[in-house]
């Protein structure tokens, strides 16, 4: 199913600190409703994305992308958009169980995503 887009007002959320912010279309696996800024991991076998959990063993335990828009995939796999690179504020990210700035920084840096801590 192709991604659909709507127009709405923008309220700054401190997610994006510095760009550009290249994004790509992805499939979010069913059974999850995630906010903008969720740290995603890719399931190796299916190529679908889920909230990255440190204890997973399907490939998704490695943080890989940042979800660009809130997405409801509760009922079915859903097409959405995720950031592939850029600089993002740690306090605006949603980490899965077992992940934090400390565990996500290096794998995200390796794919071109930098997480920064707020100054104040």
Detailed description of the structure:
The longest helix is centred in the last third of the chain and has 10 residues, at 101-110. Strands 2-8-6-4-5 form a 5-stranded antiparallel β-sheet. A 3-stranded mixed β-sheet has the order 1-9-10. Strands 3-7 form a two-stranded antiparallel ribbon. Helices cover 8% and strands 34% of the residues. The chain has a single domain (20-116), classed as Head decoration protein D (Virus Head Decoration Protein, Chain: A). Strand 9 (86-89), helix 1 (101-110) and strand 10 form a beta-alpha-beta unit. With 120 residues, it is mainly beta. This is Head decoration protein. It comes from Azospirillum picis. Pfam families: HDPD. InterPro entries: Head_decoration_D (IPR004195).
Distance between the termini: 42 Å
Task: Write down how many β-strands occur, each being a DSSP E stretch of 2 or more residues.
Answer: 10
The percentage helix is: under 10%
Return the structural class.
mainly beta
Sheet with the most strands, sense and barrel status:
5 strands, antiparallel
Q: Could you name the ranges where pLDDT drops below 50 across 5 or more consecutive residues?
A: none
Strand content: 25-35%
CATH architecture call: Beta Barrel
CATH topology: Virus Head Decoration Protein, Chain: A
CATH superfamily heading? Head decoration protein D
The topology string of helices and strands comes to: EEEEEEEEEHE
Number of H/I helices: 1
Number of domains: 1
Outline type: globular
CATH class: Mainly Beta
Strand order of the main beta sheet, please? 2-8-6-4-5
Output mean pLDDT. 91
Cα radius of gyration in angstroms: 14 Å
Pfam family, one: HDPD
Organism: Azospirillum picis
InterPro entries: Head_decoration_D (IPR004195)
Protein name: Head decoration protein
């Amino acid at each position: 199913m192709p991604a659909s887009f709507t127009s709405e007002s923008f309220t700054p959320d401190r997610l994006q600190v510095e760009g550009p912010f290249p994004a790509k279309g992805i499939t979010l696996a069913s059974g999850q409703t995630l906010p903008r800024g969720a740290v995603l991991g890719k399931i190796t076998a299916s190529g679908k994305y889920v909230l990255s959990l440190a204890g997973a063993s399907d490939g998704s335990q490695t943080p890989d992308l940042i979800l660009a828009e809130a997405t409801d995939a509760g009922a079915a796999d859903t097409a959405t958009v995720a950031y592939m690179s850029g600089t993002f504020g740690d306090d605006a990210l949603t980490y899965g169980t077992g992940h934090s700035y400390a565990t996500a920084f290096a794998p995200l840096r390796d794919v071109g995503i930098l997480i920064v801590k707020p100054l104040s």
